[in-house]
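R.M. (postdoc): so does anyone remember the format we settled on? I'll just put the structure tokens first.
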């Protein structure tokens, strides 16, 4: 298995080689933004992306689709763009003839060596692409998340870049789905320090938004905006079930939830979800708490909405903080025993 995974990483590296990427990068011209970039303004325009993450056999197809998302966001003068979870995984499709057609066809644990070998290659390609496009389009970019092998652990990491292409957040997923733990992915130990410049933005990952503590931890860091890349392994989309995440959290903890959604079928795993921007219901005229949202639960879509930071800050000030002890504010839940464990690092072996 070691020889095969090593060869797989070499083949993937060749398919994602620098020369082809550089040729593509030369085709991306810097857009002429119609608005003056001003991070001090109260109103921020946010683009949330719904993106199909079906495996691709040609990385150029993935590059063109990602670029198109930036172009659509830029054409509407977006300041921030938010992508979904597992954005690099489609790139593994260039090796599809060597990999199981469905993750359900083999024991999930048998895929762990492949993920350890292949995910860092796809991660670097995804990271480089998102960093380049964030700088080229002068847009704060929540690049979504991707798996990588880091310090002897397989992590699902979200990365955020500022408009100059500088990394301002590197956040592993804290609360895993059981399937992720079985694949050998480890949860991050805590919410990391994130740079709240140019916007008061903190990034979490998918299932982290199921737990109210995550948003309270983000608020304590100074967040008014909480980006949540998602990839929900749910074949049948349900509005009510979807509302248990970012929408519910921003009602409890006044902030804006910026959800980017990865959808489609990723190596046999059906993914559904809608990209959307959610705020406390009192801040929307119709009382829904929904500023924008994708129409369908599967597909490619870019939605742009405006968030009023001053109104959110005022609501936070009037709301006050719950009188919870520090351990409750810092809770990370263990997938081993499903109990609260402050500062836990419950990586299953």
């Amino acid at each position: 298995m070691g020889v095969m995974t090593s060869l797989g990483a070499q083949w993937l590296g060749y398919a994602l080689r620098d020369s082809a990427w550089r040729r593509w990068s030369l085709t991306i011209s810097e857009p002429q933004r119609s608005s003056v970039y001003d991070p001090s303004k109260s109103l921020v325009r946010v683009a949330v992306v719904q993106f199909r993450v079906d495996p691709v056999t040609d990385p150029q197809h993935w590059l063109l689709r990602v670029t198109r998302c930036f172009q659509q966001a830029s054409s509407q003068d977006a300041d921030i763009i938010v992508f979904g979870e597992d954005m690099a995984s489609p790139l593994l499709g260039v090796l599809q003839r060597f990999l199981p057609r469905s993750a359900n066809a083999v024991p999930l644990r048998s895929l762990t060596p492949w993920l350890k070998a292949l995910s860092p290659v796809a991660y670097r390609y995804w990271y480089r692409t998102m960093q380049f496009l964030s700088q080229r389009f002068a847009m704060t970019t929540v690049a979504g998340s991707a798996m990588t092998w880091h310090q002897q652990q397989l992590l699902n990491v979200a990365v955020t870049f500022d408009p100059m292409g500088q990394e301002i957040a590197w956040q592993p997923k804290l609360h895993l789905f059981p399937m992720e733990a079985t694949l050998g992915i480890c949860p991050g130990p805590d919410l990391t320090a994130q740079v709240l410049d140019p916007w008061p933005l903190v990034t979490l990952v998918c299932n982290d938004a199921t737990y109210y503590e995550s948003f309270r931890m983000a608020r304590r860091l100074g967040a008014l905006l909480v980006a949540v890349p998602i990839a929900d392994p749910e074949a049948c989309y349900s509005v009510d079930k979807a509302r248990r995440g970012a929408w519910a959290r921003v009602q409890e903890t006044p902030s804006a939830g910026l959800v980017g959604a990865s959808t489609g079928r990723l190596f046999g795993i059906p993914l559904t979800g809608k990209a959307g921007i959610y705020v406390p219901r009192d801040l929307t005229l119709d009382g829904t708490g929904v500023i924008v949202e994708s129409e369908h639960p599967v597909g490619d879509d870019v939605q742009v909405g405006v968030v009023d930071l001053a109104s959110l800050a005022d609501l936070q000030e009037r709301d006050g903080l719950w009188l919870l002890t520090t351990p409750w504010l810092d809770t990370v839940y263990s997938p081993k025993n499903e109990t609260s464990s402050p500062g836990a690092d419950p990586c299953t072996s």
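R.M.: ...and that's the designed sequence above, right after the tokens. Also worth knowing: The two ends are 19 Å apart (CA to CA). The chain is about 30% helix and 20% strand.
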